[in-house]
Amino acid sequence: MNGRPAIPPALRDVFRDFAGTVRHSSDAKRFDEDVRGKRVLLVGGSYSAEDLALAAIKCDAARIFVSARRANVVTWTAAWPYGKVEVLQDVVPVRVTEGGRCIGFADTEEREEREDRGEDPPVQTELRDIDTVLFCTGYAPGLDMLSEELRRAATVCAPPEELPVPPGWKMPPNALSEGLGEIEPDGETRVAGPLHPGLYRGAISIQNPHMMFMKFEFENPLFGIDVNAHLLVRYIVGSEIIPSAEEMVEREQDAALSLSMDNPWTRCMVDGNYFAAVDENWQKLFPDIPEEEKYEAMDLFQSDYEQSLEIRVLAQRMQEADYPLSFGSFQDLNETAAAYRKFDALTHNHRARLTDADMDNGRTFRDYRTGDEEDKLRSVFTGALAVPLEKRWLDVDANYSTIIEP
């Protein structure tokens, strides 16, 4: 969807008295001027913050700070070129002092708790002599050209509608099934409904199916957009029949039910019967794991499920879109899905494995080096290996036009 730069109003208020340069990440016309030789703060922890931090190193910024509300992309990186980047994790800017040159940060969780009570949070850490602040805070959908009714369709429902668990529902087999058996849901169990109750598959207006939206739903947005584009084209040309409004609502509610109830960890939070069964049968779960390690095993299981969830949703969309690549199905992922997941994990690992030697030599995760077979990036479409740059990424400029031969 068309977007406009988004800066949370609370952050705008914090930096109203800042004495230096303040811009959104989309405003890069004077980037070199804004960062060269300067002390720079990037607010936000995702890909745009990572990208601009590395670009600022290339432009010879004096020092770069990145504040991230939560663990995110910038927190994956173990070492930054020449040690020029410092990541402040789990903090948010809350005030500007000392004539507009000192920025105070509070703990994210404490700030939220204090805010709920109408209190100011204590400053946890401060940065002084900051010259430039760049908001890497994303974009908001630009839907002003649409009627209010159509805008509502694309808006996240907060909080989502609560849905009952339908009679006869059964949980798919999982790592805890053998120890627990089949557990009947608590009659009071309610699950969160669809985040976008007005949209089918996150794209088609249920009320007016001639209105379709292309959104960033997935961690790797370009791939997700391509899959969704194939699906929408099938509906537009008539290769796939758009379901009735009733069918769309039912399918979206079924999908929301799966998100809450197919995952043992999230089911524990909404289903009293299941929580009691896990508690009662704790000794039977993960029988080969020592007692003191079982909670860690449960956390790993939960993390594994969450990491595969996006791929499962993609697999379902790819099936419906008749996409040229298949990940299997939501419940049964295939080897290609496993290869994609490995590829995705490597994009994390190539950041996490950066060393002090890489830092001293100005290498980034983009300086891909072929190594062990398990560490090689391969296309899930063709199987082709990624090819390293011929020189360091920091040395690549706009005039670098060498064709890399595989």
UniProtKB/TrEMBL annotation:
Keywords carried by this UniProt record: FAD, Flavoprotein, Oxidoreductase
InterPro entries recorded: FAD/NAD-bd_sf, FMO-like
KW Oxidoreductase (keyword) present: yes
Molecular function as annotated in GO: oxidoreductase activity
Annotated PANTHER family: DIMETHYLANILINE MONOOXYGENASE (PTHR23023)
Protein name (Swiss-Prot/TrEMBL): Uncharacterized protein
Organism from which the protein derives: Corethron hystrix
